[in-house]
């Protein structure tokens, strides 16, 4: 029997890992194809039952927050939104607030991870600081960009401009669903076999969620592996380096929830400084937009536009906070004071999670349910009528 050399073993391991990643990516792309197929046959059901209130941008914002807080994956939410735009169910203006809300909703994971250190007051304080700085950073971005988008169409307008540069003029909101090499024949056969639009929709979203989680898990195991205890010396020694690694690691793992949650235990053990963890989180927010960009690239120019809007939302945060260190220092100081309060009165942490991520969205969605959407004539003619 031939003995396997060390080099051959390493090569086989690399091939196996690459194969797993490729299969996970293909599963993700086929899941996107199935979602588009399901949405194409379920537009009336979605419009009448799920998105009847999403015409109001405030409802869209809190819907994105609530859904992402529940499923704990902004990548899944943003990919669903891209699919909805590609199928013509959502307009660009309706989709942008949902993306903003998703950015806030995904921060819940790291905050919950911080609660795991509640028995150790000092570790709990440091963990809460890292966990909640992700929350407050995204909340500040929403407070800045939501009014600009609501009244002036800032994100949708700029993203449309860049989409035109990439694809040319004459962008349509939804392109016909055509066969491609990624499995449309398989998905079409599946649709014919199930023959129930609502069931197909549920299954397609379940596949999408599972594919993103699978891809995240495989890459986390194959790339990060057991090296997280060595990350603090290699990744977090300088703010700019932390930011760059935040982008790269999250783009690879495709889950800012995973990468930001990894640094919470490191912060709790006093292995990294809060200011460097913060710049890593800023980078992680940018890295997580890759999923929607990949999904959009296989669909329509309008879907690409919403994916670009997601990227621009996070790049705006980079420009604001990376170019102005004083703002980073102010937010870090505020979060430290907040973490001291939570460590002293620990019920504040639980109340914060329940109110911020669940009670407040439910309440505001209910309050805005019957509020007519304000009409901005200039915004309608420059954004909505483009498609």
From TrEMBL:
Q: Which GO terms describe its cellular component?
A: plasma membrane
Which residue ranges run through the membrane?
20-46, 58-86, 98-118, 139-162, 198-219, 240-265, 277-298, 305-327, 347-367
Q: Where in the cell is it found?
A: Cell membrane
One of the entry's Gene Ontology molecular-function terms is: sodium:phosphate symporter activity
Q: Which InterPro entries match?
A: Na/Pi_transpt (IPR003841)
Which top-rank group of organisms is this from?
Bacteria
Q: How does it sit in the membrane?
A: Multi-pass membrane protein
Task: Please tell me the species this chain comes from.
Answer: Roseivirga ehrenbergii (strain DSM 102268 / JCM 13514 / KCTC 12282 / NCIMB 14502 / KMM 6017)
Q: Does the keyword S-adenosyl-L-methionine apply?
A: no
Taxonomic classification: Bacteria, Pseudomonadati, Bacteroidota, Cytophagia, Cytophagales
Question: What single Pfam family name could you report for this chain, choosing any that match?
Answer: Na_Pi_cotrans
Q: Which UniProt keywords apply?
A: Cell membrane, Membrane, Transmembrane, Transmembrane helix
Q: Biological process GO annotation list?
A: sodium-dependent phosphate transport
Report the protein name in the record: Phosphate transporter
Keyword Transit peptide among UniProt keywords: no
